[in-house]
Amino acid sequence: MGKIKIEGYFCERCNHKWIPRGNEEPRVCPKCKSPYWNRPKKNKIKKFEKKK
Questions:
Q1: pTM, two decimal places
Q2: Whole-angstrom distance, CA of residue 28 vs CA of residue 11
Q3: pLDDT tens readout for residues 7-43
Q4: Alpha-carbon dihedral of residues 5, 7, 11, 16, nearest 10 degrees?
Q5: Which of 9, 25, 33, 34 is the most exposed place for a label (fewest CB within 10 A)?
Q6: Please, how many CA atoms are within 13 Å of residue 6, restricted to the half-sphere of its CB?
Q7: Strand partners of residue 9
C-alpha cells in the first residue's frame, strides 16, 4: 500500500487542523471562526518584578 501526503491548514489560535474544500486560502478557521487563523497570538501578559 502506498502513502500520500495531503496538504491542509492549521489554526495558530485554536490548533485546529483541516483540509480545505476548494483551492482558495480560507478566510476564517472553521472551528473558532477567527480571521487571524494564520497569525500566532500575541502574549499581552507582562511580568512585573517585585520590589524589595
A1: 0.68
A2: 9
A3: 999 999 999 999 999 889 999 999 999 999 999 888 7
A4: -50
A5: 25
A6: 8
A7: 18
